[in-house]
Amino acid sequence: MRMYPAIDLKDGECVRLFKGDYDKKTVYSSDAVATALKWQSSGADFLHVVDLDGARSGDGKNRSIIKKICQSVSMRVQTGGGIRTMEDIDELIEAGVSRVILGTAAVKNFALVEEATKKYGDRIAVGIDAKDGFVATDGWEKVSGLTAVDFAKKVKEAGVRTIIYTDIATDGAMCGPNTAAMEEMVKETGLDVIASGGVSCIEDIRALLKTGVEGAITGRAIYDGALDLKEAVELCSMSN
After folding, report:
1. For residue 212, what are the domain limits?
2. Which pLDDT tens digit goes with each residue over 175-231?
3. Beta-carbon neighbour count of residue 81 at 10 Å?
4. 3-state SS class at 124
5. Does residue 77 lie in a domain region?
6. How far, in Å, CA of 74 to CA of 156, rounded?
7. Among 72, 193, 218, 221, which residue has the fewest nearby CB atoms (within 10 Å)?
8. 8 an active-site residue?
9. What is residue 17's three-state secondary structure?
């Protein structure tokens, strides 16, 4: 299993939201590059970057910062938020992003998933954000009628190999991940599932190791100091 430290960008700052609520944010740093380098020094080899402004409005105003992060670190970077067109994807790949995550666009414009996967293969991932088991879109502010598992099976048919699966009820809440939902997703789809939401301590990492997920994203826990990223990375590497 791989640990993915998270950087969530809003107005150029590193923040965390509580359960996806844009009105409940905590600002951790105004220097995203320094934060990325900090997580790299803890042994992480893959960084998860979310453009929250992009996710909400579709505008990529944090993209220049994402490019700067890619230029400054040796670890790979995956990013999502506000990616709506092939031009967006091309721009990020050219900037050095290793994996582009399609979220809202994957639900609303499935042809984009098919086109992007055909062009870039496993450098395209899909972010599936679930609220009570149903797919949420538009920065989590709208909920569709699609179940998360059914949508995951659909993206698998399009050639996607990796999904980032977020349980909104646990995200940023420090209450532990929804391991049952993660395990179900792995078993039902056979995809590489990256678990997101709720990781609060080293015990949560141990719990996720048993679910078969490919990786786990951690944000608030490492910013607050509740989880030592270096310890988590070492635990995951021992399990591989």
Report:
1. 2-234
2. 789 999 999 999 999 999 999 988 999 999 999 999 999 999 999 899 999 999 999
3. 26
4. strand
5. yes
6. 29
7. 72
8. yes
9. strand
Q: Residue written as tokens 């670890």?
A: 75
In degrees, to the nearest 5, what angle opens at C-alpha 51 toward C-alphas 50 and 53? 145
Is residue 41 a part of any domain in this protein?
yes
Active-site choice (8, 53, 192, 204)? 8
The pTM score is: 0.93
pLDDT at 169 exceeding the cut of 80: no
pLDDT tens-digit readout, 21-32: 788 889 999 999
Identify the CATH number of the domain in which residue 48 sits.
Answer: 3.20.20.70
The span from the CA of 236 to the CA of 57, in Å, is 35
Mean pLDDT of 48-59: 84
Which entry of 129, 171, 192, 204 is annotated as an active-site residue? 129
Closest CA to 193 of 161, 169, 236: 161
What's the structural domain count of the chain?
1
